[in-house]
Amino acid sequence: MIRLNVFLIVLLAIFYWPTYILDFAGRDVAQKLYFVMLPLFFGGLALILYKKIRVPDISAAYLLFFVLLFFVFIQNIELADARRVYLPIKQLLLFLFFCSVYTLLLAYFNGSNYKKIHTSIYIVYGIQFLVVLIQLIKPETTVFSLFNARLATSPMGVRAPGTFEWVYITCFVFNFFIYFTLVDAFVFGKKKGYFLAGLALIVVLLSQSKTGYIASFLSIIYLTFLLVIFNIKGKAKAIKSLIIGMFLVVLLFSFADIELTHIENFINYAFGDGKMDGSTTTRIRQSNAALQVGIEYWHTGYLGAYDFVIENGYLDYLYRYGFFGIFYYLTFSGLIYFISFQNCKVIIRAYKLGLLENRVILNLAIASHGTLLLAFFYSFSSAPFDGYKSAFWCCLMLAISTALRNAKRLRFRTSNLKKDSCDTL
What is the CA radius of gyration of the chain? Predict the structure, then answer.
């Protein structure tokens, strides 16, 4: 049973689950069904294969999320309807998904299936590259409407979202691939890593997402930071590549035909004439509403404003759930960053002592940790921890990090590590 490539199955489900196969149901209903079907599918798979679902300690964070939302729901019980009942239930579904995927990955890693992981990642991202390419060449293509309800055309030009709903979530997902391939390039000297990371960066550049640009740049900086502070072989390559990459990006923006008007307007507003682009104007209006309502309803939140969209995770939680909401959002974000960092540190220590049975373990540990860090930044454009598809992506990153740390084969090989070995990192 362990031979089943559950890693590939999870990736395929997040990337290519046919959310909108029932197009008559409407986009909102289809997304809610997706949130129900994915946890039930993997929960059932875990029970069939292993007769139980493991519940790691970190999963309690999702239950606390449920308690928060249920508290707010009770405070606004007079507004209760199907959509508002669904909000706290969604956290239970994410809890089930995380625990189920953790169970599957733990067994998969214990079975020493690491060699299959490179192939799985390349297959999934290869398909995604192809989808993005088709959307860029023929943005009116509707063949991918099973996975994504939005076309690549927008008022800002062609912005290929792949099989994800928003281009910045596509960037968020590709940031994992950037981390993964650059570890191959910097640490293990695999030249194809540079090429594959370059392809991913091109996808991000063509997305025209301000958040995606900055987050991708931060991912390379953070990877370099990790290699330096832990004194890992390849840090010199990372620093050199970072400098060269910055130079190439300047050249690309100077000569490539990429529509950047909305970004130029944002820069001009911040540093010059004060004229705002439509995106920035909308976000400022949302921010003002969130701050005003969030402070007024600080103790209960304002669940009554369900239909008002706020494209900022921090302000969205302040707006809907009051001070408790933004406090928990920040606490949850910080907790999973800290946990994933500790997990990553153990894997790096094992790598430096030559105890890893396959290099992909280091790739996964750094890439999953780095991606969870970027969720902090993407929260300025969305709520990646509970958004459509991005919520499951965050769950997967945390499940990978936790399962790697707890895998018996790795734990057995690192059990004799002495505390003073940490001090050398």
Answer: 22
Nearest partner of 224 among 210, 236, 208, judged by Cα: 236
Give percent of the chain above pLDDT 70.
78
Which residues are CB-neighbours of 300 under 8 A, at least 6 positions away? Answer: 72, 75, 76, 322
Q: What angle is formed at CA 186 by the lines to CA 181 and CA 189, rounded to 5 degrees?
A: 90
**51 half-sphere exposure, CB direction, 13 A CA radius:** 0
pLDDT at residue 95 in the model: 93
- Is it the case that residue 390 has pLDDT exceeding 60? yes
**Inter-CA distances, 115 with 86, 91, 96, 101, Å:** 40, 33, 28, 19
Confirm whether pTM is higher than 0.90.
Answer: no
Alpha carbons 65 and 266: distance in angstroms, whole number? 34
The highest-confidence range among 183-197, 279-293, 305-319, by mean pLDDT, is 183-197
Task: Please give the structure tokens belonging to residue 115.
Answer: 């060699």
Write the DSSP string, 18-35. -TTSSGGG-HHHHHHHHH
Could you tell me which of 14, 64, 109 has the C-alpha nearest to residue 343?
A: 109
Task: Output phi, psi for 311, to 5 deg.
Answer: -90, 55
CA dist., res. 260 & res. 51, Å (int)? 53
CA distance 248 to 270: 25
What's the whole-number average pLDDT of the chain? Answer: 81
User: Is 95 exposed, middle or buried (CB count within 10 Å of its CB: 0-12, 13-18, 19+)?
Assistant: buried
Placement of tokens 């004439």 in the chain: 273
Give 87 or 305, the one with higher predicted confidence.
87
Nearest to 201 by CA among 221, 225, 171: 171
**What does the block give as tokens for 16?**
């290519």
**3-state secondary structure string, 205-257?**
HHHCCHHHHHHHHHHHHHHHHHHHHCCCCCHHHHHHHHHHHHHHHHHHHHHCC
Residue 20 has a CB neighbour count (10 Å cut-off) of: 19
pLDDT digits (tens, 9 = 90+) for 352-388: 888 887 889 999 999 999 999 999 899 888 889 888 8
